[in-house]
User: What shape does this take?
Amino acid sequence: MGNYLIRRLPAMLVTLFAASILIFLILRLAPGSPAATIAGPDASAEQIHAVEEKLGLNAPLPQQYGTWLIGLVTGNLGVSIINDQPITTLIGSRVESTLLLALAATVLMSLLGITLGVLGGSSRSARLRSYLDAFYSVLLSLPTYVTSVLLLVLFGVLIPVLPISGEASFEDGIGEVLTYLVLPATALAIPHAAVIGRLLQNSMQEAMHEDYVRFGIAKGLSRARILWLHVLRNSMGTAIVAIGIRFSGLLGGAVVVEALFSRNGLGQLMIGSVLSRDYVVVQDLIMLAVAIAVIVQALSEVALASMDPRIRLS
Assistant: This one.
Protein backbone atom coordinates (compact mmCIF):
# COMPACT_ATOMS: atom_id res chain seq x y z
CA MET A 1 0.00 0.00 0.00
CA GLY A 2 2.73 2.44 0.99
CA ASN A 3 4.76 1.75 -2.16
CA TYR A 4 1.68 2.19 -4.34
CA LEU A 5 0.83 5.54 -2.78
CA ILE A 6 4.43 6.69 -3.23
CA ARG A 7 4.27 5.71 -6.91
CA ARG A 8 0.95 7.50 -7.28
CA LEU A 9 2.26 10.66 -5.62
CA PRO A 10 3.66 12.30 -8.81
CA ALA A 11 0.36 11.79 -10.65
CA MET A 12 -1.57 13.13 -7.68
CA LEU A 13 0.65 16.22 -7.52
CA VAL A 14 0.21 16.84 -11.26
CA THR A 15 -3.57 16.58 -10.83
CA LEU A 16 -3.53 19.07 -7.98
CA PHE A 17 -1.24 21.43 -9.90
CA ALA A 18 -3.51 21.37 -12.97
CA ALA A 19 -6.57 21.87 -10.78
CA SER A 20 -4.95 24.85 -9.05
CA ILE A 21 -4.29 26.57 -12.39
CA LEU A 22 -7.84 25.96 -13.57
CA ILE A 23 -9.38 27.18 -10.31
CA PHE A 24 -7.20 30.28 -10.23
CA LEU A 25 -7.97 31.29 -13.81
CA ILE A 26 -11.73 30.66 -13.60
CA LEU A 27 -12.07 32.76 -10.45
CA ARG A 28 -9.94 35.58 -11.82
CA LEU A 29 -11.91 35.68 -15.08
CA ALA A 30 -15.27 35.70 -13.28
CA PRO A 31 -17.17 38.99 -13.39
CA GLY A 32 -17.16 41.27 -10.36
CA SER A 33 -14.40 42.68 -8.22
CA PRO A 34 -13.81 42.07 -4.51
CA ALA A 35 -12.16 45.51 -4.39
CA ALA A 36 -15.42 47.11 -5.51
CA THR A 37 -17.27 45.16 -2.81
CA ILE A 38 -14.86 46.35 -0.12
CA ALA A 39 -14.79 49.95 -1.35
CA GLY A 40 -18.58 50.12 -1.38
CA PRO A 41 -21.20 50.90 -4.05
CA ASP A 42 -20.46 54.62 -4.10
CA ALA A 43 -16.68 54.27 -4.40
CA SER A 44 -14.86 56.06 -7.19
CA ALA A 45 -12.52 54.36 -9.64
CA GLU A 46 -9.55 55.78 -7.73
CA GLN A 47 -10.79 54.34 -4.44
CA ILE A 48 -11.34 50.92 -6.04
CA HIS A 49 -7.86 51.06 -7.57
CA ALA A 50 -6.38 51.91 -4.16
CA VAL A 51 -8.04 48.85 -2.62
CA GLU A 52 -6.78 46.64 -5.47
CA GLU A 53 -3.25 47.93 -4.91
CA LYS A 54 -3.46 47.34 -1.17
CA LEU A 55 -4.66 43.75 -1.66
CA GLY A 56 -2.23 43.00 -4.49
CA LEU A 57 -5.06 42.45 -6.98
CA ASN A 58 -3.41 44.64 -9.60
CA ALA A 59 -0.28 42.47 -9.72
CA PRO A 60 0.29 40.33 -12.85
CA LEU A 61 -1.68 37.06 -12.80
CA PRO A 62 1.45 34.84 -12.84
CA GLN A 63 2.73 36.69 -9.77
CA GLN A 64 -0.62 36.32 -7.99
CA TYR A 65 -0.73 32.62 -8.85
CA GLY A 66 2.84 32.03 -7.72
CA THR A 67 2.18 33.72 -4.39
CA TRP A 68 -0.94 31.62 -3.85
CA LEU A 69 0.80 28.37 -4.88
CA ILE A 70 3.71 28.98 -2.51
CA GLY A 71 1.23 29.66 0.25
CA LEU A 72 -0.56 26.36 -0.45
CA VAL A 73 2.70 24.42 -0.33
CA THR A 74 3.87 26.09 2.88
CA GLY A 75 0.47 25.96 4.59
CA ASN A 76 -0.01 29.72 4.49
CA LEU A 77 -3.46 30.03 2.91
CA GLY A 78 -3.48 33.78 3.13
CA VAL A 79 -5.97 36.24 4.56
CA SER A 80 -9.61 36.76 3.66
CA ILE A 81 -10.03 39.81 1.44
CA ILE A 82 -13.35 40.73 3.00
CA ASN A 83 -12.92 40.29 6.76
CA ASP A 84 -9.11 40.26 7.01
CA GLN A 85 -8.99 37.00 9.00
CA PRO A 86 -6.48 34.18 8.35
CA ILE A 87 -8.11 31.61 6.07
CA THR A 88 -6.67 28.76 8.13
CA THR A 89 -8.64 30.13 11.09
CA LEU A 90 -11.83 30.40 9.04
CA ILE A 91 -11.49 26.84 7.73
CA GLY A 92 -10.30 25.39 11.03
CA SER A 93 -13.32 26.67 12.91
CA ARG A 94 -15.75 25.04 10.45
CA VAL A 95 -14.05 21.97 9.02
CA GLU A 96 -15.16 19.66 11.85
CA SER A 97 -18.82 20.34 11.13
CA THR A 98 -18.50 19.60 7.41
CA LEU A 99 -16.35 16.49 7.86
CA LEU A 100 -18.80 15.09 10.42
CA LEU A 101 -21.64 15.67 7.97
CA ALA A 102 -19.74 14.11 5.06
CA LEU A 103 -18.65 11.08 7.12
CA ALA A 104 -22.18 10.51 8.47
CA ALA A 105 -23.57 10.79 4.94
CA THR A 106 -20.92 8.34 3.70
CA VAL A 107 -21.94 5.78 6.31
CA LEU A 108 -25.64 6.16 5.48
CA MET A 109 -24.94 6.14 1.72
CA SER A 110 -22.88 2.96 2.04
CA LEU A 111 -25.34 1.12 4.28
CA LEU A 112 -28.38 1.99 2.18
CA GLY A 113 -26.68 1.50 -1.18
CA ILE A 114 -25.04 -1.82 -0.31
CA THR A 115 -28.26 -3.13 1.28
CA LEU A 116 -30.32 -2.29 -1.82
CA GLY A 117 -27.60 -3.56 -4.15
CA VAL A 118 -27.31 -6.90 -2.37
CA LEU A 119 -31.09 -7.22 -2.23
CA GLY A 120 -31.42 -6.77 -5.98
CA GLY A 121 -28.22 -8.52 -6.95
CA SER A 122 -28.97 -11.67 -4.99
CA SER A 123 -32.63 -11.91 -5.99
CA ARG A 124 -33.90 -14.27 -8.68
CA SER A 125 -36.96 -12.07 -9.14
CA ALA A 126 -36.77 -9.94 -12.28
CA ARG A 127 -39.81 -8.03 -11.02
CA LEU A 128 -38.02 -7.03 -7.80
CA ARG A 129 -35.01 -5.84 -9.77
CA SER A 130 -37.24 -3.79 -12.07
CA TYR A 131 -38.90 -2.21 -9.03
CA LEU A 132 -35.49 -1.40 -7.58
CA ASP A 133 -34.33 0.08 -10.89
CA ALA A 134 -37.37 2.37 -10.87
CA PHE A 135 -36.64 3.26 -7.23
CA TYR A 136 -33.03 4.11 -8.13
CA SER A 137 -34.23 6.33 -10.97
CA VAL A 138 -36.54 8.23 -8.64
CA LEU A 139 -33.77 8.80 -6.08
CA LEU A 140 -31.29 9.86 -8.75
CA SER A 141 -33.77 12.38 -10.13
CA LEU A 142 -33.97 14.15 -6.76
CA PRO A 143 -31.37 16.91 -6.35
CA THR A 144 -29.91 17.32 -2.90
CA TYR A 145 -31.89 20.48 -2.21
CA VAL A 146 -35.14 18.64 -3.02
CA THR A 147 -34.41 15.79 -0.59
CA SER A 148 -33.43 18.40 1.99
CA VAL A 149 -36.68 20.34 1.60
CA LEU A 150 -38.76 17.15 1.70
CA LEU A 151 -37.10 16.06 4.95
CA LEU A 152 -37.49 19.56 6.42
CA VAL A 153 -41.22 19.51 5.66
CA LEU A 154 -41.67 15.94 6.87
CA PHE A 155 -39.79 16.26 10.15
CA GLY A 156 -40.20 19.98 10.71
CA VAL A 157 -43.93 20.27 10.04
CA LEU A 158 -45.65 16.91 9.78
CA ILE A 159 -43.65 14.77 12.24
CA PRO A 160 -41.53 17.16 14.34
CA VAL A 161 -39.38 14.57 16.11
CA LEU A 162 -35.91 15.62 14.92
CA PRO A 163 -34.12 19.00 14.94
CA ILE A 164 -34.20 20.63 11.53
CA SER A 165 -31.60 23.36 12.03
CA GLY A 166 -28.38 24.00 13.87
CA GLU A 167 -25.89 21.51 15.25
CA ALA A 168 -24.52 20.22 18.54
CA SER A 169 -20.96 19.93 19.83
CA PHE A 170 -19.39 16.90 21.45
CA GLU A 171 -19.62 18.73 24.76
CA ASP A 172 -23.38 18.18 24.47
CA GLY A 173 -22.86 14.43 24.08
CA ILE A 174 -22.46 12.10 21.11
CA GLY A 175 -26.19 11.38 21.10
CA GLU A 176 -27.02 15.04 20.62
CA VAL A 177 -24.45 15.34 17.83
CA LEU A 178 -25.95 12.36 15.98
CA THR A 179 -29.48 13.67 16.46
CA TYR A 180 -28.60 16.88 14.62
CA LEU A 181 -26.78 14.92 11.91
CA VAL A 182 -29.61 12.54 10.98
CA LEU A 183 -31.62 14.77 8.65
CA PRO A 184 -28.82 16.61 6.79
CA ALA A 185 -26.78 13.42 6.40
CA THR A 186 -29.81 11.55 5.08
CA ALA A 187 -30.64 14.33 2.62
CA LEU A 188 -27.05 14.27 1.40
CA ALA A 189 -26.78 10.47 1.19
CA ILE A 190 -30.01 9.47 -0.58
CA PRO A 191 -29.15 10.31 -4.22
CA HIS A 192 -25.65 8.87 -3.89
CA ALA A 193 -26.95 5.67 -2.28
CA ALA A 194 -28.97 5.01 -5.43
CA VAL A 195 -25.75 5.05 -7.48
CA ILE A 196 -24.06 2.57 -5.13
CA GLY A 197 -27.12 0.30 -5.11
CA ARG A 198 -27.50 0.20 -8.87
CA LEU A 199 -23.78 -0.42 -9.50
CA LEU A 200 -23.59 -3.22 -6.94
CA GLN A 201 -26.81 -4.84 -8.15
CA ASN A 202 -25.64 -4.88 -11.77
CA SER A 203 -22.18 -6.10 -10.77
CA MET A 204 -23.62 -8.99 -8.76
CA GLN A 205 -25.95 -9.97 -11.58
CA GLU A 206 -23.04 -10.04 -14.01
CA ALA A 207 -20.94 -12.06 -11.57
CA MET A 208 -23.67 -14.69 -11.33
CA HIS A 209 -22.82 -15.70 -14.91
CA GLU A 210 -19.08 -16.13 -14.27
CA ASP A 211 -17.36 -19.51 -14.52
CA TYR A 212 -16.50 -19.66 -10.81
CA VAL A 213 -20.21 -19.53 -9.97
CA ARG A 214 -20.98 -22.48 -12.27
CA PHE A 215 -17.99 -24.30 -10.81
CA GLY A 216 -19.29 -23.69 -7.29
CA ILE A 217 -22.71 -24.99 -8.22
CA ALA A 218 -21.11 -28.09 -9.77
CA LYS A 219 -19.22 -28.67 -6.49
CA GLY A 220 -22.50 -28.60 -4.59
CA LEU A 221 -21.99 -25.30 -2.79
CA SER A 222 -25.17 -23.65 -1.55
CA ARG A 223 -26.47 -20.56 -3.31
CA ALA A 224 -26.05 -18.52 -0.14
CA ARG A 225 -22.40 -19.56 0.19
CA ILE A 226 -21.69 -18.70 -3.44
CA LEU A 227 -23.42 -15.33 -3.09
CA TRP A 228 -21.84 -14.19 0.13
CA LEU A 229 -18.32 -15.64 -0.16
CA HIS A 230 -17.70 -15.26 -3.86
CA VAL A 231 -20.15 -13.11 -5.80
CA LEU A 232 -20.47 -10.34 -3.21
CA ARG A 233 -16.75 -10.21 -2.50
CA ASN A 234 -15.87 -9.90 -6.18
CA SER A 235 -18.61 -7.31 -6.75
CA MET A 236 -17.87 -5.10 -3.76
CA GLY A 237 -14.92 -3.54 -5.54
CA THR A 238 -17.31 -1.62 -7.76
CA ALA A 239 -19.13 -0.25 -4.72
CA ILE A 240 -15.89 0.69 -2.94
CA VAL A 241 -14.58 2.70 -5.88
CA ALA A 242 -17.98 4.37 -6.27
CA ILE A 243 -18.05 5.28 -2.57
CA GLY A 244 -14.62 6.88 -2.90
CA ILE A 245 -15.72 8.89 -5.92
CA ARG A 246 -19.01 9.88 -4.30
CA PHE A 247 -17.28 11.20 -1.18
CA SER A 248 -16.12 14.26 -3.10
CA GLY A 249 -19.69 14.68 -4.34
CA LEU A 250 -20.86 14.66 -0.75
CA LEU A 251 -18.50 17.52 0.05
CA GLY A 252 -19.96 19.50 -2.83
CA GLY A 253 -23.53 18.73 -1.79
CA ALA A 254 -22.73 19.83 1.75
CA VAL A 255 -22.76 23.44 0.53
CA VAL A 256 -26.51 23.26 -0.13
CA VAL A 257 -27.36 21.04 2.82
CA GLU A 258 -25.52 23.19 5.37
CA ALA A 259 -27.34 26.27 4.13
CA LEU A 260 -30.78 24.64 4.36
CA PHE A 261 -30.16 23.05 7.77
CA SER A 262 -28.30 26.10 9.16
CA ARG A 263 -25.08 24.25 9.89
CA ASN A 264 -22.01 26.42 10.41
CA GLY A 265 -19.65 24.47 8.18
CA LEU A 266 -17.47 25.02 5.14
CA GLY A 267 -20.55 25.16 2.94
CA GLN A 268 -21.78 28.27 4.69
CA LEU A 269 -18.30 29.76 4.41
CA MET A 270 -18.25 28.98 0.69
CA ILE A 271 -21.63 30.62 0.05
CA GLY A 272 -20.70 33.73 2.00
CA SER A 273 -17.36 34.00 0.21
CA VAL A 274 -18.94 33.58 -3.23
CA LEU A 275 -21.55 36.24 -2.53
CA SER A 276 -18.91 38.68 -1.28
CA ARG A 277 -16.51 37.73 -4.13
CA ASP A 278 -13.84 36.71 -1.64
CA TYR A 279 -12.18 34.48 -4.21
CA VAL A 280 -9.09 33.88 -2.07
CA VAL A 281 -11.25 31.92 0.36
CA VAL A 282 -13.21 30.28 -2.47
CA GLN A 283 -10.11 29.01 -4.26
CA ASP A 284 -8.66 27.62 -1.02
CA LEU A 285 -11.91 25.78 -0.26
CA ILE A 286 -12.12 24.31 -3.76
CA MET A 287 -8.48 23.19 -3.60
CA LEU A 288 -9.16 21.55 -0.25
CA ALA A 289 -12.08 19.63 -1.75
CA VAL A 290 -9.98 18.57 -4.76
CA ALA A 291 -7.13 17.39 -2.52
CA ILE A 292 -9.52 15.32 -0.39
CA ALA A 293 -11.07 13.80 -3.53
CA VAL A 294 -7.66 12.82 -4.93
CA ILE A 295 -6.55 11.23 -1.65
CA VAL A 296 -9.83 9.36 -1.12
CA GLN A 297 -9.73 8.04 -4.69
CA ALA A 298 -6.22 6.66 -4.17
CA LEU A 299 -7.25 5.02 -0.88
CA SER A 300 -10.32 3.47 -2.51
CA GLU A 301 -8.10 1.91 -5.16
CA VAL A 302 -5.94 0.41 -2.41
CA ALA A 303 -9.05 -0.96 -0.69
CA LEU A 304 -10.27 -2.42 -3.98
CA ALA A 305 -6.98 -4.21 -4.59
CA SER A 306 -6.95 -5.63 -1.06
CA MET A 307 -10.41 -7.16 -1.62
CA ASP A 308 -9.85 -8.45 -5.16
CA PRO A 309 -6.62 -10.46 -5.59
CA ARG A 310 -6.99 -10.25 -9.39
CA ILE A 311 -6.10 -6.55 -9.24
CA ARG A 312 -2.49 -5.52 -8.90
CA LEU A 313 -1.48 -2.07 -7.74
CA SER A 314 0.99 -0.60 -10.18
Observations:
- The chain has a mean pLDDT of 84.
